[in-house]
Amino acid sequence: MGKKLLFTLAILTFLMSLITGCDSKTSTAEPTATASPTPSNLEWKSPEPTGAVKLAQDIVALQKESLSFEAGNYEKGKIPPGEYIFISLGKSAQYYSEEDLGGSIIDNHNFPTFGYVSVLGAGNVTNRGCLISVNALERLGVSGAKQIYEMINNVSGYNQSGMYKVGVDIPEGTHTITSLGNDGYYAILSGPVGNNEIADNKIFNGSVTLDLTAGQYLELNRASIN
Question: Domain ends where: 158, 193, 218?
Fold first, then answer.
């Protein structure tokens, strides 16, 4: 309950700003005063935002440069082609798709938490989360989708459902994944949604050992990775 409350209080403005496209105007200022206040030493100070709040503000600011995009429907050409991080903003899986101009789906995906997509620029995009260009990661001071998700949700060491980039979100090498309940699922992909081939996938119960190479993508559902 403590983590949920902290997330609600600290990140509510972030979620609303991504959904509405409005920058945060909330101040966390506190008055400072001496025992005998005078006009010169009684003032309001606004501390610099840190952590998740600063990250949220920085992501919103990237919209001006077409490096991040809020939830919405985008006509062809509105989102520059390239690789983007997808961050789910709700508790349930959220949807991404790109359709050609005839209305046929080129590729689509439901993201329970976070992942990666390749915008091809071939048609219209439906985005029900937040898209962040991988070209902006250095400016944001983060490594990849997993770190952004952890910061937004005030968690560390997240290792369950999501799409992980090998060599970025998780190291390359041998990993053991374990199903959470029945029918865990994994897929090893050559690239992000919209530009990949499946190297291996399986519905499984128990534990499975995988050898992963940098540049691959690992999708997990109802499973965890060590």
Answer: 158
Residues 82 and 176 in one domain: no
Q: Work out the burial of residue 219: count CB atoms within 10 Å of its CB; fewer than 13 is exposed, 13-18 middle, 19 or more buried.
A: buried
Residue 150 to residue 154: CA distance in whole angstroms: 6
pLDDT digits (tens, 9 = 90+) for 191-216: 999 999 999 999 999 999 999 999 99
DSSP state of 63: G
Query: Which amino acid, one-letter code, is at 180?
Result: L
pLDDT in tens, 62-104: 999 999 999 999 999 999 999 999 999 877 789 999 999 999 9
pTM above 0.90, yes or no: no
What domain count does the chain have?
2
Domain that holds residue 187: 159-226
Return d(Cα 18, Cα 148) in angstroms, integer. 14
